[in-house]
Amino acid sequence: MKLMRPQFRWSHFTARPNKRRKARPLVAGLLVTALSLVAFGQACGPSFQILDKAARESASSTTLLSPEDRAACAPRSSLPEPTDLTSFVEYLNALPRPVKLSCIVMNLAGPIELIATHSQRSAQPASSARNPRLFIRRGDLLIGIVTSGASAALVELGQLLPNTQQSLKAEFVLPIQSDLISEADGVEHTRLSATGGTSCGTCHTNETQVTLPSGARAFRSDILRLAAQEEVPLAQIQYEAEECARLNSRDERCLVYRALVSSGGLQRREY
Ligand code: HEC
Q1: How far apart are CA 86 and CA 24, in angstroms?
Q2: What is the rounded distance in angstroms from the CA atom of residue 204 to the CA atom of residue 85?
Q3: In the beta sheet, which residues pair with residue 209?
Q4: Number of the ligand 1 atom closest to the C-alpha atom of 159
């Protein structure tokens, strides 16, 4: 039987006065554009707005944080890079009291790798597409934050365990008042009772207890990923930061967005 091979012909790539051939790429192009618009619209949810030209021009990302904003979050001792549960606790302990979300974000060196979702199905639901749940990635650590609503008082942590589909879980309540906190504080806050497992285990299955190098007890459980259709594009964060700058707002929510955008770049990173 004769093999059918794709035939390469230059004529496929050169412009020819053939209307039917020329129309195909045009139709395909229109179709791709229409499909991406539909997909984009769905991913962003109804409250997504693209960058407004006036907002973009009125604010430059270099002026999004003032020297006073930075001074209010200046660390009280040297900051470690928070790449796992242990170093994140050291990082929190180096920040001024009470520890606010804006100060946690402001002291992260950019570029910041993250992914955003408007999912409301977790222990830290996003309050809208304009206030998504963000997972900041540093080394093996996922730092889950939300910028408004009840979830804004929580930092949810997942330390990814290499070569597994599991992470160690912990949770801190903001603002942190006590002078020094420990890993155990973050783990114990997730516990249902002193003898039982964690509240995270309801959704994050296959939970087991482990001992950290520090001797603290912790729990590992399955990773849950973002639903693709609930992802919020990073342009939304840029938009919120510039809206905050345009309205001259410095509330805690706005300081978080300003800090994210002023960090030296945002990069999308899945986990
Ligand atoms: C009601 C279900 C539910 C509960 C309870 C829950 N989560 Fe999650 N979690 C999710 C979902 C769903 C995702 C995927 C992202 C999203 O949709 O928000 C997720 C993702 C995560 C992630 C990122 C990936 C991973 O699994 O490491 C972390 C970290 C996390 N949750 C921490 C916690 C912690 C800590 C607790 C307990 C205090 C907890 N979660 C309790 C539903 C839940």
Answers
A1: 57
A2: 18
A3: 219
A4: 27
Instruction: Tell me the CA–centroid distance for residue 123 and ligand 1, in Å.
Output: 6
Ligand 1 neighbour 192 (Cβ under 6 A): no
Domain residue limits, the chain: 53-268
Q: Which amino acid is at 227?
A: A
Helix (H, G, I), strand (E, B) or coil at 11: helix
pTM: 0.81
Q: Which of 115, 156, 168, 187 to mutate to test the pocket of ligand 1 (most atoms within 8 A of CB)?
A: 156
* 123 C-beta closer than 6 A to ligand 1: yes
**What's the CA gap between 253 and 102, in Å, rounded?**
8
Distance 124 CA to ligand 1 centre (A): 7
Token duo for residue 247: 């309205």
Q: Average pLDDT per run of 10 along the chain, which is 271 residues long?
A: 38 39 50 46 38 44 83 97 97 98 97 96 92 97 96 97 97 97 95 88 96 92 97 96 94 97 94 95
Residue nearest to atom 11 of ligand 1 (CA): 122
Residue of 18, 16, 36, 17 whose CA lies nearest to 28? 36
- Answer whether 169 contacts ligand 1 (Cβ < 6 A): yes
Closest atom of ligand 1 relative to the 271 alpha carbon: 24
Q: Which conformational region is residue 227 in: left (phi greater than 0), alpha (psi within -120 to 50 degrees), or beta?
A: beta
